[in-house]
TrEMBL record, chain A:
This is Heme exporter protein B. InterPro entries: Cyt_c_biogenesis_CcmB, Cyt_c_CcmB_bac. Pfam families: CcmB. The lineage of its organism: Bacteria, Pseudomonadati, Pseudomonadota, Alphaproteobacteria, Rhodobacterales. It comes from the Bacteria.
TrEMBL record, chain B:
The chain crosses the membrane at residues 12-31. It is found in: Cell inner membrane. It comes from the Bacteria. It comes from Cognatishimia maritima. GO terms for cellular component: plasma membrane. This is Heme exporter protein D. The keyword Transmembrane helix applies.
TrEMBL record, chain C:
Belongs to the CcmC/CycZ/HelC family. It is a multi-pass membrane protein. Pfam families: Cytochrom_C_asm (PF01578). The chain crosses the membrane at residues 20-43, 55-82, 94-114, 126-145, 157-176, 208-229. Residues 8-184 form the Cytochrome c assembly protein domain. Keywords: Cell inner membrane, Cell membrane, Cytochrome c-type biogenesis, Membrane, Transmembrane, Transmembrane helix, Transport. The keyword Cell membrane applies. It comes from Cognatishimia maritima. The gene is ccmC. This is Heme exporter protein C. One of its GO terms (biological process) is cytochrome complex assembly. It is found in: Cell inner membrane; Membrane. NCBIfam families: ccmC.
Amino acid sequence: MKALLLRDLKLAFRSGGGFGLGLAFFLIVAVLVPFGVGPENDLLAKIAAGVLWLGALLACLLSLDRIFALDWEDGSLDLLATSPLPLEAVCGVKALAHWLTTGLPLTLAAPVLGLLLSLPETGYVWLVTSLALGTPALSVIGCFGAALTVGIKRGGLLLSLLVLPLYVPTLIFGAEVARRGTEGLAVSGPLALLAGISLAVIAVLPFVSALVLRINLR
Amino acid sequence: MIPDLGKYTATVLSAYGASIALLILLVWASLRASKKARQALEKVERKDG
Amino acid sequence: MASIWEYANPVKFMRLTDRVLPVVALGAAVCMVAGLIWGFFLTPDDFRQGSTVKIIYLHVPAALIAINAWFVMLVASLVWFIRRHHVSALVAKAAAPVGAVMTLIALITGAIWGEPMWGTWWVWDPRLTSFLILFLFYLGYIALWEAIESPDTAADLTAVLCLVGSVFAVLSRYAVNFWNQGLHQGASVLRAGAVTGSDTEEKVSNVFAVPLFVCIAGFVLLFLALVLLRTRTEIRKRRTAALIARERLV
Protein backbone atom coordinates (compact mmCIF):
# COMPACT_ATOMS: atom_id res chain seq x y z
CA MET A 1 0.00 0.00 0.00
CA LYS A 2 2.75 2.34 0.99
CA ALA A 3 4.74 1.31 -2.05
CA LEU A 4 1.79 2.11 -4.30
CA LEU A 5 1.34 5.49 -2.67
CA LEU A 6 5.03 6.32 -3.05
CA ARG A 7 5.01 5.16 -6.65
CA ASP A 8 2.00 7.34 -7.48
CA LEU A 9 3.53 10.33 -5.74
CA LYS A 10 6.81 9.84 -7.59
CA LEU A 11 5.02 9.60 -10.91
CA ALA A 12 3.11 12.79 -10.17
CA PHE A 13 6.25 14.72 -9.32
CA ARG A 14 8.10 13.59 -12.42
CA SER A 15 7.85 15.71 -15.49
CA GLY A 16 4.48 15.36 -17.14
CA GLY A 17 2.90 14.61 -13.79
CA GLY A 18 -0.05 16.62 -12.63
CA PHE A 19 1.66 18.24 -9.68
CA GLY A 20 2.79 21.57 -11.06
CA LEU A 21 -0.03 21.75 -13.56
CA GLY A 22 -2.86 22.08 -11.06
CA LEU A 23 -1.03 24.71 -9.04
CA ALA A 24 -0.15 26.74 -12.12
CA PHE A 25 -3.75 26.55 -13.28
CA PHE A 26 -4.96 27.74 -9.89
CA LEU A 27 -2.54 30.67 -10.02
CA ILE A 28 -3.64 31.61 -13.52
CA VAL A 29 -7.32 31.55 -12.56
CA ALA A 30 -6.61 33.84 -9.62
CA VAL A 31 -4.68 36.21 -11.86
CA LEU A 32 -7.25 36.21 -14.64
CA VAL A 33 -10.29 36.90 -12.47
CA PRO A 34 -9.42 40.57 -11.82
CA PHE A 35 -8.98 41.03 -15.57
CA GLY A 36 -12.46 39.66 -16.05
CA VAL A 37 -14.37 41.49 -13.34
CA GLY A 38 -12.32 44.66 -12.95
CA PRO A 39 -9.69 45.69 -10.43
CA GLU A 40 -11.95 47.13 -7.68
CA ASN A 41 -10.71 45.75 -4.39
CA ASP A 42 -14.17 45.83 -2.80
CA LEU A 43 -15.67 43.66 -5.47
CA LEU A 44 -12.69 41.30 -5.43
CA ALA A 45 -12.85 40.98 -1.66
CA LYS A 46 -16.49 39.98 -1.94
CA ILE A 47 -15.99 37.23 -4.49
CA ALA A 48 -12.46 36.11 -3.54
CA ALA A 49 -13.52 33.14 -1.42
CA GLY A 50 -15.90 31.81 -4.05
CA VAL A 51 -13.44 32.34 -6.88
CA LEU A 52 -10.69 30.53 -5.01
CA TRP A 53 -12.98 27.60 -4.28
CA LEU A 54 -14.01 27.40 -7.90
CA GLY A 55 -10.39 27.65 -9.03
CA ALA A 56 -9.34 24.88 -6.68
CA LEU A 57 -12.20 22.70 -7.94
CA LEU A 58 -11.26 23.20 -11.57
CA ALA A 59 -7.58 22.65 -10.83
CA CYS A 60 -8.53 19.36 -9.16
CA LEU A 61 -10.46 18.37 -12.27
CA LEU A 62 -7.41 18.85 -14.49
CA SER A 63 -5.42 15.94 -13.17
CA LEU A 64 -8.29 13.53 -12.55
CA ASP A 65 -7.93 11.54 -15.73
CA ARG A 66 -4.37 10.70 -14.75
CA ILE A 67 -5.51 8.74 -11.72
CA PHE A 68 -6.20 5.56 -13.66
CA ALA A 69 -5.59 6.29 -17.34
CA LEU A 70 -1.83 5.66 -17.38
CA ASP A 71 -2.10 2.49 -15.32
CA TRP A 72 -4.89 1.32 -17.60
CA GLU A 73 -2.85 1.88 -20.74
CA ASP A 74 0.29 0.07 -19.65
CA GLY A 75 -1.60 -2.73 -17.95
CA SER A 76 -0.45 -2.07 -14.41
CA LEU A 77 -4.09 -1.68 -13.43
CA ASP A 78 -4.66 -5.35 -14.29
CA LEU A 79 -1.67 -6.21 -12.14
CA LEU A 80 -3.05 -4.16 -9.29
CA ALA A 81 -6.42 -5.87 -9.65
CA THR A 82 -4.83 -9.31 -9.33
CA SER A 83 -2.46 -8.30 -6.55
CA PRO A 84 -3.25 -9.27 -2.94
CA LEU A 85 -4.11 -5.66 -2.24
CA PRO A 86 -7.91 -5.26 -2.46
CA LEU A 87 -9.03 -2.96 -5.26
CA GLU A 88 -10.92 -0.85 -2.73
CA ALA A 89 -7.62 -0.03 -1.05
CA VAL A 90 -6.05 0.73 -4.42
CA CYS A 91 -8.83 3.26 -5.10
CA GLY A 92 -8.38 4.79 -1.66
CA VAL A 93 -4.62 5.08 -2.11
CA LYS A 94 -5.01 6.52 -5.59
CA ALA A 95 -7.42 9.15 -4.29
CA LEU A 96 -5.06 9.92 -1.42
CA ALA A 97 -2.15 10.34 -3.82
CA HIS A 98 -4.27 12.63 -5.97
CA TRP A 99 -5.17 14.70 -2.94
CA LEU A 100 -1.57 14.91 -1.76
CA THR A 101 -0.43 16.15 -5.16
CA THR A 102 -3.31 18.55 -5.91
CA GLY A 103 -5.70 19.18 -3.01
CA LEU A 104 -3.05 19.74 -0.38
CA PRO A 105 -0.84 22.10 -2.40
CA LEU A 106 -3.91 24.01 -3.53
CA THR A 107 -5.00 24.42 0.07
CA LEU A 108 -1.56 25.69 1.04
CA ALA A 109 -1.38 28.04 -1.94
CA ALA A 110 -4.86 29.47 -1.40
CA PRO A 111 -3.85 32.10 1.21
CA VAL A 112 -1.23 33.54 -1.12
CA LEU A 113 -3.75 33.83 -3.91
CA GLY A 114 -6.24 35.22 -1.40
CA LEU A 115 -3.76 38.03 -0.95
CA LEU A 116 -3.85 38.72 -4.67
CA LEU A 117 -7.64 38.88 -4.64
CA SER A 118 -7.68 41.07 -1.50
CA LEU A 119 -9.49 38.50 0.57
CA PRO A 120 -10.47 40.10 3.90
CA GLU A 121 -8.33 39.08 6.86
CA THR A 122 -11.13 37.21 8.55
CA GLY A 123 -11.42 34.89 5.58
CA TYR A 124 -8.01 33.19 5.52
CA VAL A 125 -8.57 30.73 8.34
CA TRP A 126 -11.91 29.60 7.03
CA LEU A 127 -10.79 29.47 3.43
CA VAL A 128 -7.93 27.15 4.33
CA THR A 129 -10.09 25.11 6.70
CA SER A 130 -12.84 24.64 4.16
CA LEU A 131 -10.39 23.72 1.42
CA ALA A 132 -8.57 21.30 3.70
CA LEU A 133 -11.89 19.65 4.56
CA GLY A 134 -13.40 19.80 1.09
CA THR A 135 -10.60 18.91 -1.31
CA PRO A 136 -10.36 15.28 -0.09
CA ALA A 137 -14.00 14.88 -1.11
CA LEU A 138 -13.15 16.35 -4.52
CA SER A 139 -10.34 13.82 -4.97
CA VAL A 140 -12.44 10.84 -3.92
CA ILE A 141 -15.42 11.83 -6.09
CA GLY A 142 -13.03 12.49 -8.96
CA CYS A 143 -11.48 9.08 -8.43
CA PHE A 144 -14.94 7.57 -8.91
CA GLY A 145 -15.40 9.56 -12.10
CA ALA A 146 -11.98 8.49 -13.35
CA ALA A 147 -12.85 4.87 -12.64
CA LEU A 148 -16.08 5.25 -14.61
CA THR A 149 -14.39 6.66 -17.70
CA VAL A 150 -11.15 4.69 -17.57
CA GLY A 151 -11.95 2.50 -20.55
CA ILE A 152 -13.01 5.36 -22.78
CA LYS A 153 -10.57 6.90 -25.20
CA ARG A 154 -10.40 10.68 -24.86
CA GLY A 155 -12.69 10.49 -21.87
CA GLY A 156 -11.41 13.72 -20.36
CA LEU A 157 -14.34 15.86 -21.39
CA LEU A 158 -16.86 13.21 -20.45
CA LEU A 159 -15.12 12.90 -17.09
CA SER A 160 -15.67 16.62 -16.43
CA LEU A 161 -19.32 16.35 -17.47
CA LEU A 162 -19.85 13.44 -15.08
CA VAL A 163 -17.89 14.78 -12.15
CA LEU A 164 -18.93 18.44 -12.09
CA PRO A 165 -22.57 17.82 -11.09
CA LEU A 166 -21.29 15.53 -8.35
CA TYR A 167 -19.13 18.37 -7.07
CA VAL A 168 -22.10 20.65 -6.47
CA PRO A 169 -22.80 19.87 -2.80
CA THR A 170 -19.12 20.02 -1.83
CA LEU A 171 -18.66 23.32 -3.64
CA ILE A 172 -21.78 24.84 -2.12
CA PHE A 173 -20.88 23.97 1.46
CA GLY A 174 -17.18 24.69 1.04
CA ALA A 175 -17.70 28.09 -0.53
CA GLU A 176 -20.41 28.82 2.03
CA VAL A 177 -17.96 28.19 4.88
CA ALA A 178 -15.37 30.44 3.27
CA ARG A 179 -17.91 33.19 2.53
CA ARG A 180 -19.50 33.15 5.96
CA GLY A 181 -16.08 33.09 7.55
CA THR A 182 -15.08 36.09 5.47
CA GLU A 183 -18.19 38.00 6.51
CA GLY A 184 -17.69 37.03 10.15
CA LEU A 185 -20.89 34.97 10.37
CA ALA A 186 -21.29 31.65 12.15
CA VAL A 187 -19.78 28.83 10.10
CA SER A 188 -20.50 25.75 12.20
CA GLY A 189 -23.52 24.66 10.13
CA PRO A 190 -21.97 24.46 6.68
CA LEU A 191 -18.66 23.35 8.21
CA ALA A 192 -20.32 20.34 9.81
CA LEU A 193 -22.14 19.52 6.56
CA LEU A 194 -18.93 19.87 4.55
CA ALA A 195 -17.08 17.58 6.93
CA GLY A 196 -20.02 15.18 6.80
CA ILE A 197 -19.94 15.01 3.03
CA SER A 198 -16.18 14.49 2.99
CA LEU A 199 -16.26 11.72 5.55
CA ALA A 200 -19.21 9.94 3.97
CA VAL A 201 -17.69 10.16 0.53
CA ILE A 202 -14.29 8.92 1.75
CA ALA A 203 -15.95 6.02 3.53
CA VAL A 204 -18.23 4.88 0.72
CA LEU A 205 -16.96 5.92 -2.69
CA PRO A 206 -13.69 3.88 -2.81
CA PHE A 207 -15.87 0.76 -2.67
CA VAL A 208 -18.03 2.03 -5.50
CA SER A 209 -14.94 3.00 -7.50
CA ALA A 210 -13.52 -0.48 -7.02
CA LEU A 211 -16.81 -1.99 -8.19
CA VAL A 212 -16.73 0.21 -11.27
CA LEU A 213 -13.10 -0.69 -11.98
CA ARG A 214 -13.94 -4.40 -11.78
CA ILE A 215 -16.72 -3.87 -14.33
CA ASN A 216 -14.29 -2.03 -16.58
CA LEU A 217 -11.60 -4.68 -16.24
CA ARG A 218 -14.00 -7.51 -17.01
CA MET B 1 -59.64 31.90 -32.83
CA ILE B 2 -56.85 32.50 -30.36
CA PRO B 3 -58.26 33.72 -27.07
CA ASP B 4 -57.38 37.19 -25.90
CA LEU B 5 -54.19 36.79 -23.95
CA GLY B 6 -53.83 40.44 -23.07
CA LYS B 7 -50.40 41.83 -22.63
CA TYR B 8 -48.85 38.40 -22.12
CA THR B 9 -49.58 37.11 -25.62
CA ALA B 10 -45.94 36.75 -26.60
CA THR B 11 -45.06 35.09 -23.30
CA VAL B 12 -47.75 32.44 -23.41
CA LEU B 13 -47.39 31.72 -27.10
CA SER B 14 -43.61 31.39 -26.93
CA ALA B 15 -43.89 29.02 -23.97
CA TYR B 16 -46.36 26.84 -25.83
CA GLY B 17 -44.38 27.12 -29.06
CA ALA B 18 -41.06 26.14 -27.49
CA SER B 19 -42.53 23.25 -25.50
CA ILE B 20 -44.54 21.81 -28.36
CA ALA B 21 -41.57 22.15 -30.70
CA LEU B 22 -39.37 20.25 -28.24
CA LEU B 23 -41.99 17.55 -27.74
CA ILE B 24 -42.47 17.11 -31.48
CA LEU B 25 -38.72 16.94 -31.94
CA LEU B 26 -38.46 14.26 -29.26
CA VAL B 27 -41.32 12.20 -30.70
CA TRP B 28 -39.95 12.57 -34.23
CA ALA B 29 -36.45 11.54 -33.19
CA SER B 30 -37.82 8.52 -31.31
CA LEU B 31 -39.97 7.45 -34.24
CA ARG B 32 -37.12 7.85 -36.69
CA ALA B 33 -34.75 5.81 -34.55
CA SER B 34 -37.43 3.16 -34.17
CA LYS B 35 -37.98 2.97 -37.91
CA LYS B 36 -34.28 2.76 -38.60
CA ALA B 37 -33.78 -0.01 -36.06
CA ARG B 38 -36.72 -1.96 -37.45
CA GLN B 39 -35.45 -1.72 -41.00
CA ALA B 40 -31.93 -2.70 -40.01
CA LEU B 41 -33.23 -5.71 -38.13
CA GLU B 42 -35.46 -6.76 -41.02
CA LYS B 43 -32.55 -6.53 -43.41
CA VAL B 44 -30.37 -8.73 -41.25
CA GLU B 45 -33.14 -11.22 -40.60
CA ARG B 46 -33.94 -11.51 -44.29
CA LYS B 47 -30.32 -12.24 -45.04
CA ASP B 48 -30.33 -14.91 -42.34
CA GLY B 49 -33.51 -16.71 -43.19
CA MET C 1 -49.27 -17.69 -12.71
CA ALA C 2 -47.64 -15.04 -14.80
CA SER C 3 -45.29 -12.84 -12.87
CA ILE C 4 -44.19 -9.39 -13.90
CA TRP C 5 -40.69 -10.72 -14.49
CA GLU C 6 -41.90 -12.65 -17.51
CA TYR C 7 -41.90 -9.39 -19.40
CA ALA C 8 -38.18 -9.15 -18.77
CA ASN C 9 -37.96 -11.63 -21.62
CA PRO C 10 -37.37 -9.45 -24.68
CA VAL C 11 -39.62 -11.54 -26.91
CA LYS C 12 -42.51 -11.36 -24.46
CA PHE C 13 -41.83 -7.68 -23.91
CA MET C 14 -42.00 -7.03 -27.63
CA ARG C 15 -45.20 -9.04 -27.98
CA LEU C 16 -46.86 -7.25 -25.09
CA THR C 17 -45.77 -3.77 -26.13
CA ASP C 18 -46.87 -4.51 -29.68
CA ARG C 19 -50.40 -4.42 -28.33
CA VAL C 20 -49.96 -1.90 -25.53
CA LEU C 21 -47.98 0.78 -27.31
CA PRO C 22 -50.69 1.91 -29.77
CA VAL C 23 -53.22 2.18 -26.94
CA VAL C 24 -50.84 4.20 -24.76
CA ALA C 25 -49.81 6.42 -27.66
CA LEU C 26 -53.43 7.07 -28.59
CA GLY C 27 -54.29 7.84 -24.97
CA ALA C 28 -51.32 10.21 -24.76
CA ALA C 29 -52.33 12.01 -27.92
CA VAL C 30 -55.98 12.35 -26.85
CA CYS C 31 -55.15 13.52 -23.34
CA MET C 32 -52.50 15.98 -24.45
CA VAL C 33 -54.52 17.51 -27.22
CA ALA C 34 -57.64 17.68 -25.06
CA GLY C 35 -55.82 18.99 -22.00
CA LEU C 36 -53.80 21.59 -23.83
CA ILE C 37 -56.75 22.83 -25.90
CA TRP C 38 -58.91 22.95 -22.81
CA GLY C 39 -56.22 24.74 -20.90
CA PHE C 40 -55.29 27.13 -23.66
CA PHE C 41 -58.70 28.07 -25.06
CA LEU C 42 -61.28 27.36 -22.41
CA THR C 43 -59.86 28.47 -19.08
CA PRO C 44 -60.16 31.99 -17.69
CA ASP C 45 -57.18 34.17 -16.87
CA ASP C 46 -55.90 34.32 -13.34
CA PHE C 47 -56.75 37.63 -11.70
CA ARG C 48 -53.15 38.26 -10.73
CA GLN C 49 -51.13 36.44 -13.35
CA GLY C 50 -53.28 37.21 -16.35
CA SER C 51 -53.01 34.78 -19.20
CA THR C 52 -49.56 33.53 -18.18
CA VAL C 53 -51.31 31.07 -15.90
CA LYS C 54 -51.92 28.99 -19.02
CA ILE C 55 -48.24 28.04 -19.01
CA ILE C 56 -49.01 25.86 -16.02
CA TYR C 57 -50.43 23.18 -18.33
CA LEU C 58 -46.97 22.63 -19.76
CA HIS C 59 -44.73 23.58 -16.88
CA VAL C 60 -46.10 21.46 -14.07
CA PRO C 61 -46.55 18.18 -16.02
CA ALA C 62 -43.11 18.54 -17.60
CA ALA C 63 -41.50 19.15 -14.22
CA LEU C 64 -43.34 16.17 -12.77
CA ILE C 65 -42.12 13.87 -15.53
CA ALA C 66 -38.61 15.33 -15.31
CA ILE C 67 -38.25 14.11 -11.75
CA ASN C 68 -40.14 10.87 -12.13
CA ALA C 69 -38.18 9.89 -15.23
CA TRP C 70 -35.10 9.83 -13.03
CA PHE C 71 -36.97 7.64 -10.55
CA VAL C 72 -37.86 5.27 -13.36
CA MET C 73 -34.18 5.14 -14.33
CA LEU C 74 -33.21 4.53 -10.72
CA VAL C 75 -35.64 1.64 -10.31
CA ALA C 76 -34.71 0.19 -13.70
CA SER C 77 -31.01 0.42 -12.83
CA LEU C 78 -31.61 -1.35 -9.54
CA VAL C 79 -33.56 -4.11 -11.26
CA TRP C 80 -30.74 -4.50 -13.78
CA PHE C 81 -28.24 -4.72 -10.99
CA ILE C 82 -30.14 -7.23 -8.94
CA ARG C 83 -31.83 -9.40 -11.54
CA ARG C 84 -29.74 -8.72 -14.66
CA HIS C 85 -32.72 -8.25 -16.97
CA HIS C 86 -31.47 -6.59 -20.12
CA VAL C 87 -34.83 -5.00 -20.87
CA SER C 88 -34.59 -3.18 -17.58
CA ALA C 89 -31.24 -1.63 -18.46
CA LEU C 90 -32.65 -0.60 -21.82
CA VAL C 91 -35.66 1.02 -20.16
CA ALA C 92 -33.28 3.13 -18.11
CA LYS C 93 -31.43 4.08 -21.26
CA ALA C 94 -34.67 4.89 -23.07
CA ALA C 95 -36.03 7.06 -20.27
CA ALA C 96 -33.01 9.36 -20.01
CA PRO C 97 -33.45 11.49 -23.16
CA VAL C 98 -37.17 11.83 -22.48
CA GLY C 99 -36.43 13.01 -18.96
CA ALA C 100 -33.80 15.42 -20.23
CA VAL C 101 -36.21 16.99 -22.72
CA MET C 102 -38.89 17.29 -20.04
CA THR C 103 -36.40 19.00 -17.74
CA LEU C 104 -35.54 21.37 -20.55
CA ILE C 105 -39.22 22.12 -21.16
CA ALA C 106 -39.77 22.78 -17.47
CA LEU C 107 -36.76 25.10 -17.40
CA ILE C 108 -37.71 26.97 -20.57
CA THR C 109 -41.38 27.44 -19.71
CA GLY C 110 -40.32 28.42 -16.22
CA ALA C 111 -37.94 31.05 -17.56
CA ILE C 112 -40.53 32.41 -20.00
CA TRP C 113 -43.09 32.48 -17.20
CA GLY C 114 -40.70 34.06 -14.76
CA GLU C 115 -39.87 36.93 -17.03
CA PRO C 116 -43.19 38.81 -16.66
CA MET C 117 -43.98 37.46 -13.18
CA TRP C 118 -40.69 37.89 -11.38
CA GLY C 119 -39.23 40.45 -13.72
CA THR C 120 -36.34 38.16 -14.58
CA TRP C 121 -35.73 35.09 -16.72
CA TRP C 122 -33.76 33.37 -14.08
CA VAL C 123 -33.33 33.50 -10.34
CA TRP C 124 -31.09 31.17 -8.39
CA ASP C 125 -34.05 29.88 -6.52
CA PRO C 126 -33.46 26.43 -4.99
CA ARG C 127 -36.09 24.79 -7.14
CA LEU C 128 -34.79 26.29 -10.38
CA THR C 129 -31.21 25.53 -9.49
CA SER C 130 -31.94 21.90 -8.66
CA PHE C 131 -33.62 21.48 -12.01
CA LEU C 132 -30.59 22.84 -13.77
CA ILE C 133 -28.42 20.37 -11.86
CA LEU C 134 -30.85 17.58 -12.71
CA PHE C 135 -30.45 18.50 -16.37
CA LEU C 136 -26.67 18.21 -16.04
CA PHE C 137 -27.09 14.77 -14.48
CA TYR C 138 -29.22 13.70 -17.44
CA LEU C 139 -26.58 14.95 -19.87
CA GLY C 140 -23.79 13.10 -18.09
CA TYR C 141 -25.84 9.91 -17.95
CA ILE C 142 -26.70 10.02 -21.65
CA ALA C 143 -23.11 10.86 -22.58
CA LEU C 144 -21.80 7.87 -20.62
CA TRP C 145 -24.20 5.52 -22.41
CA GLU C 146 -23.05 6.88 -25.74
CA ALA C 147 -19.36 6.67 -24.92
CA ILE C 148 -19.07 3.00 -24.00
CA GLU C 149 -19.11 0.40 -26.72
CA SER C 150 -19.70 -2.85 -24.87
CA PRO C 151 -23.44 -2.86 -24.05
CA ASP C 152 -23.19 -4.78 -20.79
CA THR C 153 -20.36 -2.65 -19.48
CA ALA C 154 -22.32 0.45 -20.46
CA ALA C 155 -25.41 -0.84 -18.67
CA ASP C 156 -23.42 -1.60 -15.52
CA LEU C 157 -21.52 1.67 -15.44
CA THR C 158 -24.55 3.84 -16.15
CA ALA C 159 -26.49 1.97 -13.49
CA VAL C 160 -23.77 2.79 -10.95
CA LEU C 161 -23.74 6.39 -12.14
CA CYS C 162 -27.52 6.55 -11.79
CA LEU C 163 -27.38 5.26 -8.21
CA VAL C 164 -24.51 7.49 -7.15
CA GLY C 165 -26.04 10.38 -9.07
CA SER C 166 -29.35 9.95 -7.25
CA VAL C 167 -27.64 10.26 -3.90
CA PHE C 168 -25.77 13.36 -5.05
CA ALA C 169 -28.88 14.83 -6.66
CA VAL C 170 -30.76 14.61 -3.38
CA LEU C 171 -27.71 15.99 -1.59
CA SER C 172 -27.55 18.85 -4.07
CA ARG C 173 -31.22 19.60 -3.51
CA TYR C 174 -30.60 20.12 0.20
CA ALA C 175 -27.32 21.91 -0.38
CA VAL C 176 -28.99 24.30 -2.79
CA ASN C 177 -31.79 24.98 -0.34
CA PHE C 178 -29.24 25.73 2.30
CA TRP C 179 -27.11 27.84 0.02
CA ASN C 180 -29.90 30.06 -1.16
CA GLN C 181 -31.26 30.74 2.30
CA GLY C 182 -27.72 31.52 3.30
CA LEU C 183 -27.34 33.92 0.42
CA HIS C 184 -30.51 35.92 0.49
CA GLN C 185 -33.40 35.21 2.76
CA GLY C 186 -35.66 37.35 0.62
CA ALA C 187 -36.03 34.79 -2.15
CA SER C 188 -39.49 33.88 -0.92
CA VAL C 189 -40.68 37.45 -1.48
CA LEU C 190 -39.88 37.03 -5.13
CA ARG C 191 -41.92 33.89 -5.21
CA ALA C 192 -44.91 35.16 -3.32
CA GLY C 193 -46.62 36.08 -6.56
CA ALA C 194 -45.22 33.12 -8.36
CA VAL C 195 -46.78 29.78 -8.91
CA THR C 196 -44.49 26.79 -8.97
CA GLY C 197 -44.80 23.18 -8.01
CA SER C 198 -46.43 22.33 -4.77
CA ASP C 199 -47.40 25.91 -3.96
CA THR C 200 -49.72 25.75 -6.90
CA GLU C 201 -51.65 22.66 -6.20
CA GLU C 202 -53.11 24.22 -3.09
CA LYS C 203 -53.86 27.50 -4.73
CA VAL C 204 -55.20 26.38 -8.06
CA SER C 205 -58.97 26.36 -8.20
CA ASN C 206 -60.98 23.72 -9.98
CA VAL C 207 -61.25 25.72 -13.18
CA PHE C 208 -57.52 25.25 -13.64
CA ALA C 209 -57.09 21.93 -11.84
CA VAL C 210 -59.20 19.70 -14.06
CA PRO C 211 -57.48 20.54 -17.36
CA LEU C 212 -54.18 20.41 -15.49
CA PHE C 213 -54.88 16.83 -14.45
CA VAL C 214 -55.79 15.94 -17.99
CA CYS C 215 -52.48 17.42 -19.13
CA ILE C 216 -50.58 15.53 -16.44
CA ALA C 217 -52.25 12.31 -17.56
CA GLY C 218 -51.30 13.17 -21.13
CA PHE C 219 -47.67 13.77 -20.23
CA VAL C 220 -47.49 10.56 -18.20
CA LEU C 221 -48.93 8.57 -21.09
CA LEU C 222 -46.61 10.31 -23.53
CA PHE C 223 -43.64 9.46 -21.34
CA LEU C 224 -44.77 5.85 -21.14
CA ALA C 225 -45.29 5.64 -24.88
CA LEU C 226 -41.91 7.16 -25.65
CA VAL C 227 -40.10 4.91 -23.20
CA LEU C 228 -41.79 1.82 -24.63
CA LEU C 229 -41.02 2.94 -28.17
CA ARG C 230 -37.40 3.71 -27.39
CA THR C 231 -36.96 0.47 -25.47
CA ARG C 232 -38.28 -1.43 -28.48
CA THR C 233 -35.80 0.44 -30.64
CA GLU C 234 -32.97 -0.56 -28.33
CA ILE C 235 -34.07 -4.19 -28.25
CA ARG C 236 -34.14 -4.28 -32.04
CA LYS C 237 -30.70 -2.69 -32.20
CA ARG C 238 -29.35 -5.31 -29.82
CA ARG C 239 -30.89 -8.10 -31.85
CA THR C 240 -29.46 -6.69 -35.06
CA ALA C 241 -26.02 -6.46 -33.51
CA ALA C 242 -26.30 -9.99 -32.15
CA LEU C 243 -27.36 -11.37 -35.53
CA ILE C 244 -24.52 -9.60 -37.29
CA ALA C 245 -22.06 -10.91 -34.75
CA ARG C 246 -23.38 -14.45 -35.19
CA GLU C 247 -23.09 -14.17 -38.93
CA ARG C 248 -19.46 -13.23 -38.61
CA LEU C 249 -18.81 -16.26 -36.47
CA VAL C 250 -20.35 -18.71 -38.92
